[in-house]
Amino acid sequence: MGQPEQRAEGAGPFTTRLTWHPPGGGTAVWESRLARRRGVLGVRPHGAAATRYISADAVAVARLRRLNVIAAIAFVIGGALFAAGAAVAQFGSGDATACASIYFAGGLFFSTGGYVSLLQVINAPRHVGGGEGRLVTHRWRWWRYEPMQVDWLSTFVLFAGTLVFAVDLLDSFLQGLNVQQVNRLIWVPDVIGCALFLLSGHLGFAEICHGRPCVRPHNLGWWIVAVNQLGSVLFMVSALAAYTRPATGSLVNADLANWGTLTGALCFSLAGLFQLGEHPSGS
Fold first, then answer.
1. Which residue has the higher pLDDT, 193 or 57?
2. Residue 280 falls within a domain, yes or no?
3. Membrane-crossing residues (predicted)?
4. Closest C-alpha to 55, from 37, 72, 70, 41
5. DSSP string spanning 213-266?
6. 109 contacts 269 by C-beta, under 8 angstroms
7. Domain assignment of residue 221, given as a range
8. Rounded to 5 degrees, what angle do the CA atoms 177, 178, 179 make?
9. Distance between CA atoms of 246 and 16, rounded to whole angstroms?
């Protein structure tokens, strides 16, 4: 007997939701974010009013919960440190080395959160098409190349953005730079990192909205993506304001740069707190 016909939804080449009718009747739905964050797919039996969720096995559930907690806490701490660095720059001593040290510590947590988010995708339970629908757990992997999966691409771009930020943060310790060197070694990586964060957020919306604009105020995953994207926008505003004018040697707007970093970082911390609630319900 052939596999039931599946209806695919998504953005461009990416499939983010599959719907099909199992042999026993009813409707089964696999969604990318639900599978990798909560380890479930939905099945609505024929004539039933509510959808029941089929969970992955205990190994996958424990794995997803553990990775989710690590990533979420890393983003909370990383965001808090970036906010602290911006606060020191705006309200405190403004010492460049002190600010750079705080930012660098925050960057380590952001990179950790980015890589662990990628591990969540790589090690998420996989959908087995057709039939009654089930999720299969594969062996643990530290790396996997899957650019045609929107969740992989989104988290990979996010992780890449944190690494580019690391270049910016390391270069900020350099002394005696002229204006051109500051813009090339610090400002350019900062802008590139912000652009990668924005791209990651755009892909996150494509995943959760299945390629269409959407507002889902009752969906925790949507709020996580939205708050993170707001943080990315504020980081980009901060980066643009931090450009050093060659003619004067001063920033375009130091206050805006600091406030953009502070508020954007708090968005990432808040999204990290939200993420703690987006986990498998199994024990």
1. 193
2. no
3. 69-89, 101-122, 150-167, 187-208, 220-244, 256-276
4. 41
5. ----TT-HHHHHHHHHHHHHHHHHHHHHHTPBPTTTSSBS-HHHHHHHHHHHHH
6. no
7. 58-275
8. 120
9. 46
